[in-house]
Amino acid sequence: MDYLSREGSPIPADLWEKIDNVVVSTAKKFLTGRRIISIYGPLGAGIQSINVDNISELEESEGSISVIKGRIFQQIPLINQDFTLLWRDLEFSEQMGLPVDLSSASRAASQCALKEDELIFLGNKELGYKGLLTEEGIIKLPISDWSQGENPFKDISAGLARFLENGIAGRNALVVSPKLFVDLQRIQPGTGITEYDRISRILNGNIFQTPVLNGNKAVLICAEPQNMDLVIGQDMITSYLETKNLNHCFRILETLLLRIKNKEAVIVFE
Prior knowledge:
The chain has helices at 13-30, 33-36, 87-96, 103-121, 151-165, 178-183, 195-202, and strands at residues 39-40, 49-53, 59-60, 68-69, 71-75, 78-85, 139-141, 172-176, 207-209, 218-222, 228-232, 237-244, 247-260, 266-269. The protein has two domains: 13-131 and 232-261, Major capsid protein gp5 fold; 139-222, hypothetical protein PF0899 fold, CATH 3.30.2320.10. It is flat. The protein is built from seven helices and 14 strands. The strands form four sheets. Strands 1, 6, 11, 12 and 13 form a five-stranded mixed sheet that branches.
């Protein structure tokens, strides 16, 4: 079944290829969560739910009828963003032999990518999904003034020490708001290096920023797959939606779900 409605669309194969290239290349520039969290999948567009385990509580009950404790099942939400290509623009490009302007597709891909990161980091309160900063039971530490002294380095060092105390080790990563990212660019007097460089060394370069975080918000994670992963059902792809007023309407869609398996592997500074 062609659920993407590509085969019956009036869009030629070469234009579909260009749309796919623009959507994927643009999304990669904006996506942050995928850079650090292990991917589980893609499982397929038809997979609608999956188990989410809390490894600290995971066990099988005893008796003639047993269930797995510490396990719930959640629906894998769908993220989408629409865009339109005007028929006159397509005709002009074909008649003049010029490339099709795919700016609307690029913009839609960037918006879809930001929606993905919002779900990963902030969740969705209305639909009951938790993110890295909103999950219950994660570690929360007060943040210092990162515009002063060695406060950023001290905060992150304290967070890494907390990981070790809890027996958590592996690939660590820090994600900060744009404001805090700017604060990390200060050069420490007498050292010749920035706070960003100092912290980058103890995190093997895994420092990222995302506009979905605002103000003084940062999250430090141990991104090993036993601690968390990102379930992908249908990876980001473009479908043909409809023809409206002769113009061609498209929808970028994807299905994904963040699974936090070990809440002690997430430290939020705020």
